[in-house]
Amino acid sequence: MNPAIRALIVCTNHTQYKSKPLKTGLWLSEATHFYDELSDRNIPYDIVSPSGGPVPIDERSLDLKDNTNDKWYHNPEFRRKLDNSLKPDEVNPDDYQLIYFTGGHGTMWDFPENGKLQQITQRIYENGGMVAAVCHGVAGLLNVKLSDGSTLIDGRQITGFSNMEEKLIRLDEEVPFLLEDELRRRNALYSKSFIPFLPYIEVDERLVTGQNPLSARKVGKKVMEEMYEK
Fold it and tell me: How many whole angstroms separate alpha carbon 230 and alpha carbon 228?
């Protein structure tokens, strides 16, 4: 793997649920806990979103008693990149060896059908790079096709936010689809933790996915292990 690694972090722009008045957006720890693992190696990064510009943060995730959230939320460079995220058209995939899809419910609306993000993911993966995602961000992998016409997740070991977790937080009627069901429908080999909301990841060669917000750090650790220690 190229030692001069640069990471591309993908965040949502979407804030609206079907009917609930509360707003969604990026689940903050899914960005901060992941990047905290990369920062130990001083890995440069950029943030991209489907529409570019400011990345909304789900207010329920603004837990600044979480030291990692507090550290990066008050980091000027990190906040500047969140407030001024790149548009997909501004991204050259050849500049990156890693792409990571953060979560938050908004991703269920603006990740799956974004063709440009799919092309970026395909290019990074086929250049020998890593693809990672956590929680609802795994929705960004649903429609990624490789140059041979196959889909990235077909027959691959994958996890992501489970049906049970969605029901337990009572948002299963608010999302456009249930991620677990859709992953299974796309022939992904879906698995999950026996107990909801515990950290859980799946690794399938250069594809690393995490089930829920508490899995973001484990995804970051595993990505760094795969890129530097193998």
Answer: 6
Query: How far is C-alpha 147 from the chain's CA centre?
Result: 22
Is-catalytic flag, 74?
A: no
Q: Report d(CA 5, CA 45) in Å as an integer.
A: 9
* DSSP-derived pairing of the beta strands 189-190 and 157-158: parallel
Greatest alpha-carbon pair distance for the chain in Å reads 47
Query: What whole-number distance in Å separates Cα of residue 229 and Cα of residue 41?
Result: 13
Any bridge partners for residue 210, and if so which?
Answer: 134, 201
User: Domain span at residue 165?
Assistant: 7-228
Q: What CATH code is carried by the domain that includes residue 141?
A: 3.40.50.880
Catalytic residue, from 37, 166, 180, 202: name it. 166
Distance in angstroms (rounded) separating the CA atoms of residues 80 and 19? 31
**Each residue's pLDDT tens digit, 21-52:** 999 999 999 999 999 999 999 999 999 999 99
Catalytic, 136? Answer yes
Question: What total of structural domains would you count in the chain?
Answer: 1
**pTM score above 0.90:** yes
Residue 2 has pLDDT above 80, yes or no: no
Among residues 11, 135, 180, 226, the one annotated as catalytic is: 135
